[in-house]
Amino acid sequence: MEKNIKFEQNTPLWDNSLSIEERLDYLTGAMTLEEKIHCLTTGCPDIPRLGIRATYMGGEAAHGIEARHDQAFNKGEPEPTTAFTQPIGMSASFDRELIRECGRAVGEEARALYTRNGGGGLCRWAPTIDMERDPRWGRTEESYGEDPYLTGEMAGAYIRGMRGEDPFYIRCGATLKHFYANNVEKDRIKISSSVDRRNKNEYYLKPFKKAIMEGGAEAVMTSYNEINGIPAIVNDEVRHVLKGTYGLPGHVVCDGGDFSQTVNDHHFYQTHGETLANGLKAGVDCFTDDGEIVYAAAREALDNGWITEKDIDESVRNSFRTRIRLGMFDKEGDCPYQNMGEEYINNEEHKQLARKMADEAVVLLKNENEILPFDENTVKNVAVVGPLSDVWYKDWYCGIPPYEVTVLDGIREAFPNAKISHETGLSEIRIRLADQTSDKCYVGLDENTRLKLVIKEQAETFILNDWGCGSMTLVAKSNGRFVTLEEDTDIIKADKKEAFGWFVRELWNLKWEKSSFTLESWNKKQVIVDKDGHFSICVDNPPARFEIEIVKDGKTAAEKTAKEADHVIAVIGCNPVINSKEEVDRTTIVLPTEQEELVKRVAAVNPNTIVALISNYPYAIGELEKNVPAILLSASGSQELGHGIADVLTGKAAAAGRLNMTWYRSDEDLPDMNDYDIIQGKRTYQYFDREVLYPFGYGLTYAAFSYEKMQIKKERGCIKVSCFIKNTGERSADEVVQLYVHKKG
To answer: pTM higher than 0.90 for the full model?
Structure first.
């Protein structure tokens, strides 16, 4: 048993008086080749005679520590952690210091979980700094915008907060994702991104340079795609640019499973041994894949003379350099971040940081006739409508927060003396087989919540939510559970608490033909009714046809509620795992038709309708904008989301956010997603030459500002610009000073 194993600490590895390179010299001399090979993944094994305990690199921290423990490799009970706004929303604050403080909170919680559990999680796979050249990219929520300078500054602030102030020891290391030109999810594990020298150096590499040389990033993760025909895992720019030019201090990992994909999907090599050999030579240190596959590949590479032990030594040195700086071999207790405890998880300070970040992430897109902010003392009757009004959605890299504040929660708290009415705008329906005379032609639930045919009196009422692009969810009203296609079966049940997963099995497509429809599952299979009356999927039998009976018309109910109120808050937007996520790009920037129609109908009966758009990416809302006097935008993800919206509605917080991406008017403004030439393709605010809906950097606030006495001086090789800024309005407000320069060609 482990309690009888002595982990030796009286070795040079644990000697803080030695330089880090001297400690690594000892380590590579003392380890056996077998032990070194086992360190070529993101983990290392127990090596008691050297005092090495098994640890791992990795874990997610895009906007808080992800400790859900809901995936196959780390099953367990969730550990709640503070959830901040999605990175695309944090970046919209343009506030370096606040983002740095959020990064500090993330680093503190990483340390506290390490104290609690041991094992690892001190060098996290965040932030994502891929350039957001196309708003359809499925992972837009994870990054910081379309501008390389802004991305480098905002991500660098997050990194510095994670890292801490000590000149040697690291509180929590940051691993930048993904190196590089990684903006398409479809076929990402085998496609190639074509990037010329100018685009590469002026755009795609810029944030990596800033995040490493100025931000202090510890590590980098390579991307899945090829770059000009070369898989990123064997791209020698890892060695020559990241490590050579930029001076990356730690290690480089490949993306999850990409090691095997180099053979299986890119078909770039014949064997995994070739991938490992060339990956090491390119500068990749840790291969994020099945340990047995990596081990066998290393043996193959050694046996064939493709690598030597010296090549493996370099990888071991790089990964253990990070471990030493994390304080994992700190005999003297010099690391100031050791033994940080439970008091750092979900504490009051982190809660307040989350709220301030939620406040500053809100972008005020429209405020006609200064309808906002509301005076919470005079508002008497507010209707809150919309499918996102009373929900809080997880994204793929979020943790489980200790609590969630929905927009409805925030508004109820903000207006304690007002009447608050609520309608989702979603319709309630019954579903029946089309053209049937049998009594058992309605859809109900059996005792195990399986969908089956029943008589009308036993019919289930479903809440239908149409997310656009053929993605709909159905919730059984009797139990509040989502209808789902059970994993690895053809059984259809209403038993899921949420629509969530790598594959969102709760998605359905109602494919209409005249007055009836067929039902298609998330994986494009047709729904049939079997001989027992249960619902299942089949590719061979003809699909069943259905009709709908409206039990409650959601839009009509929302209209009625809105008509009776003084003000309406219409909450619409996206679900972070529907229509856009890792492995799923958006096919359009159009707002879901049902949501747009809901707002138009509500605004028609009450002109004081304010839209709160909860979205992690731009939408083409030009038509919607014409119908309402004010629009607020916030990214999702924060446990304080509802407070952030309410604080800006009431003026408790000034509208502070600014857009970090261009908002285009239509899909026609966007070139092919696989076109990485932003200059010729006229992408982003730098090169787009037509009218936009909202420009990069746009965002209103609650006062006017004057700019005076601008001066430009050249000092010590730098150009310094200064000016006086004055709030000329009648209330406190937030201004973001933006200066745009370019070299005249």
So the answer is: yes
